[in-house]
UniProtKB/TrEMBL annotation:
InterPro entries: DHS-like_NAD/FAD-binding_dom, MenaQ_synth_MenD, THDP-binding, Thiamin_PyroP_enz_TPP-bd_dom, TPP_enzyme_TPP-bd. Residues 11-120 form the Thiamine pyrophosphate enzyme N-terminal TPP-binding domain. Pfam families: TPP_enzyme_C, TPP_enzyme_N. It comes from Caldilineaceae bacterium SB0662_bin_9. The lineage of its organism: Bacteria, Bacillati, Chloroflexota, Caldilineae, Caldilineales. This is 2-succinyl-5-enolpyruvyl-6-hydroxy-3-cyclohexene-1-carboxylate synthase.
Length: 577
């Protein structure tokens, strides 16, 4: 940076250098005039990678996907005006999911706010409570020589807010006055320090006497692990706690705790199906030990709430100061590291022998559900749940599966199996159907692993503009599996479907589209699957074939619902016999 450079360029130089030095590795850039100083400084910094996007909403979700994959903050860069407002959906999701994200927005000088000046809105505060912190940088360079260090210190505090203790998005709004361009533009290197790469320390935790007593005296305890971005230390810790306490682990599909059939046998992965079949009515817990966010299954939440309403203990362990409890069921909140909690709780003298019958019953019921769903999958040529199970069984090690919301995530929950050494990610903070394809693109851009997106047809149509990014960014490790049941068929599982005259028109809203023409328009490979028997070959061709494929699985909503009811009926009768 030269003293002769315009103030806007000098300010942007400090911003970018500081962000890169703090470990912000990637910038998703949306072209615009007012953001010129930022974009030029990102380009000339050899330590910063970037991608260019036409759509700010999509770019924000791609930055979210990158952060979700790496654990460190990525940044999205926009010009002023409504471009900034386009970032709100991804910001809400990042906030609710505790994903670090830097919203780097260019702005007109403050003197133009409220004057009717073109492309000028009130950008500070636009994201409300959904950012952990924000900084509005004025367009003026101070006369004293310490302004660069002071600005860098402010940015450092901002990025630290994104990293934790409650990770999430932060907003850096930079006002720029013309001119934007330097007289000379040369590349440079900034020494970047790693972010969130040091081994996490798991300090000793002192459990209260009440918690210790409850853990030991319980005779019917259950460990529940909800959506949680956890690594091997937490997986091992939860499993060890289950073994030392003889408590089953009821695992959400996004918990990271589900494993392929036959491994880690204390894991109960068919909880929702067992609840639908009424087979958990006589299994009344006196203790719930819970980690992570609320699970996908609302039946599971209702089950523990009903059973603990007349007595029992619900221990919730979380290190982000957040309490995920929409039924006010928690009786003991433990603020601290879940791994440390598992270690300390596992050291207690638990009555393992007397609890063995309780654990065995859970294992028997889960095995029964697995046999039943496997039998139904083999018998049905067109069942969405069978499709999802085939998909999971086909995916190899080192695969990342991105789960769409609405019906796909519920099918994953009901599938009851996990990936072999793989990871399942999803946007369950606010559980919206927007930006799912863009999120998967961000995930694919941040890893060399194979990424598979399981998405519904309406969600796909909602984010269709993100398909343009596939070829622009040369994405070669993404396969998109679209479950096309012609509309929002999840509503057929809700009470509104009883209003037959309006449900189809106002809620299901069939679109009658296929995705072959859409794939062709964006230069992507397309494959159509109409029967479960041909899915495995089609998956192999799609994953091992062209760089990015759209695999459209045409399903029948009526057949799917009939088979689901048949499965639950079979499970109910088998459990009663």
């Amino acid at each position: 940076m030269l003293r002769s450079d315009p103030p806007s360029f000098q300010i942007a130089d400090v911003i970018v250098q500081t962000l890169v030095a703090l470990g912000v590795r990637h910038f998703c850039i949306c072209p615009g005039s007012r953001s010129t100083p930022l974009v030029l400084n990102i380009w000339r910094d050899a330590s910063a990678s970037h991608t260019v996007h036409h759509d700010e909403r999509s770019a924000a979700f791609q930055a979210l996907g990158r952060s979700l994959t790496t654990g460190g903050a990525s940044a999205v860069v926009t010009t002023s005006g409504t471009a900034v407002a386009e970032l709100l959906p991804a910001t809400v999701e990042a906030s609710q999911s505790n994903v670090p994200l830097v919203l780097l927005t260019a702005d007109r000088p403050a003197r133009l706010r409220g004057t009717g000046s073109n492309q000028t809105i009130l950008q500070p505060g636009i994201f409300g409570p959904y950012v952990r912190a924000e900084l509005d940088v004025p367009a003026i360079v101070s006369d004293h020589g310490e302004w660069q260090r002071e600005l860098s210190d402010q940015i450092t505090l901002l990025v630290q807010s994104a990293a934790g203790p409650r990770p999430g998005p932060v907003h850096l709004n930079a006002q720029f006055d013309k001119p934007f361009e330097p007289a000379e533009l040369t590349r440079r290197a900034t020494a970047a320090c790693p972010m969130n790469e040091s081994p996490e320390a798991h300090a000793h935790m002192d459990l209260s006497d009440e918690v210790r007593s409850t853990l030991v005296q319980s005779s019917r305890g259950v460990i529940v692990v909800g959506p949680n971005r956890i690594g091997p230390p937490m997986l091992d810790a939860v499993h060890a706690l289950s073994v030392s306490t003889a408590m089953p682990i009821v695992a959400d599909p996004l918990s990271g705790c589900r494993f392929p059939v036959g491994t880690r046998c204390n894991v109960v992965s068919h909880g929702d199906a067992l609840l639908q079949a009424g087979l958990l009515q006589n299994l009344r817990p006196d203790l719930i030990v819970r980690f992570g966010s609320l699970p996908v299954s609302t039946r599971l939440i209702a089950w523990w709430s009903a059973n603990l309403s007349t007595g029992g203990t619900h221990i919730y362990v979380n290190n982000t100061s957040e309490v995920h409890d929409d039924t006010n069921a928690i009786t003991e909140y433990v603020a601290g590291d879940p791994v440390s909690f598992c270690h300390e709780a596992g050291k207690l003298q638990h009555p393992v022998v007397s609890r063995q019958g309780w654990l065995s019953r859970w294992q028997e019921l889960n095995a029964l559900a697995e046999r039943t769903v496997r039998m139904c999958s083999a018998a049905s040529p067109r069942w969405d749940l069978g499709t999802v199970r085939t998909l999971i069984e086909r995916l190899g090690a080192n695969t990342i599966l991105v789960a769409g919301n609405s019906l796909p995530i519920r099918l994953l929950d009901s599938a009851g199996i996990g990936l072999r050494d793989g990871v399942i990610l999803g946007n369950r903070g606010a559980s919206g159907i927007d930006g799912l394809l863009a999120t998967a693109l961000g995930v694919a851009g941040a890893t060399s692993k194979q990424v598979v997106l399981l998405i519904g047809d309406v969600s796909m149509l909602h984010d269709v503009g993100s398909l343009a990014e596939v070829r622009r960014q040369n994405v070669t490790n993404l396969c998109v599996v679209v479950l096309n049941n012609d509309g929002g068929r999840i509503f057929e599982r809700l009470p509104v479907t009883d209003l037959a005259d309006v449900a189809e028109q106002l809620f299901v809203a069939p679109h009658g589209l296929d995705f072959a023409g859409l794939a062709s328009a964006f230069g992507l490979d397309h494959r159509l699957v109409s029967e479960l028997s041909s899915l495995d070959v089609a998956l192999s061709d799609a994953i091992d074939g062209p760089p990015t494929s759209i695999l459209e699985v045409r399903t029948s909503a009526a057949d799917d619902l009939a088979w689901e009811r048949h499965y639950i009926d079979l499970l109910r009768h088998a459990g009663a016999s």
